[in-house]
User: What shape does this take?
Amino acid sequence: MTANELSAAQVVAQLRALGVVEGNILLVHTSFRAIRPIEGGPAGLIAALRQALGATGTLVMPSWTGSDEEAFDAATTPASPDLGVVADTFWRLPGVTRSEHCFALAAIGPAAPRIVSGPLPLPPHVPESPVGRVRDLDGKVLLIGVNHDADTMIHVAELLANVPYRVPKHITVLKDGRPTRIDYHENDHCCQRFNLANDWLRSRGLQSEGPIGHAPARLIRARDIVDVVLDQLRRDPLVFLHAPDARCAECNDARRGIEA
Assistant: This one.
């Protein structure tokens, strides 16, 4: 071990101090660059998470494709590069199950089959999606080295609130053995203003914060994220979009979707 490398036992202790308990269902978003160095690297972090959750807990990570043009294969398609090395390591491990569609989650534990199963969700974060099922099962969201702009649970809240913005998207699937394009509309934008959720959750005492590895981490009950965000979206359905004069291309695309 290097001088500042944390042991697996230290990471487990950090997780428990943050509020992770055995039996939790835990959806984890990570940036390993912020977390490292820890014993065992990305696989060591996964092992620590599993130890903290115990045999009755379920570990869940994002595992969707990074390509709209290539058909997804759950057995071979890498996780999108922006999900990081931990997510791409996780789905490859023995015992981990992965959704059969391109908006996949991967999971291991008693609740894994229920979370990852089901047909292709369109748009990706409908309440019936794998992310939505984490909420249904009263799971928690753990953000390690990332902020709420990586928090997919907020997209579930947007759809429950029926936000007015949508942007055209497409994905490629195999249909009768042939790549087939599917067009759909998604509640998408830059997501930077998802970070407003920090103050909303903190002010209600709903967000636990502390270090995991060398990174700041946030632990929040999924239902609390959705409930708090729904309350804000009822007041202002466009709260997550930058103002037009901010010149955010992605948010302005979303605004054009309102006018279409």
Observations:
- Residues 8-259 form one domain.
- Residues 173 and 180 are 5 Å apart (CA to CA).
- The chain has a mean pLDDT of 96.
- The two ends are 57 Å apart (CA to CA).
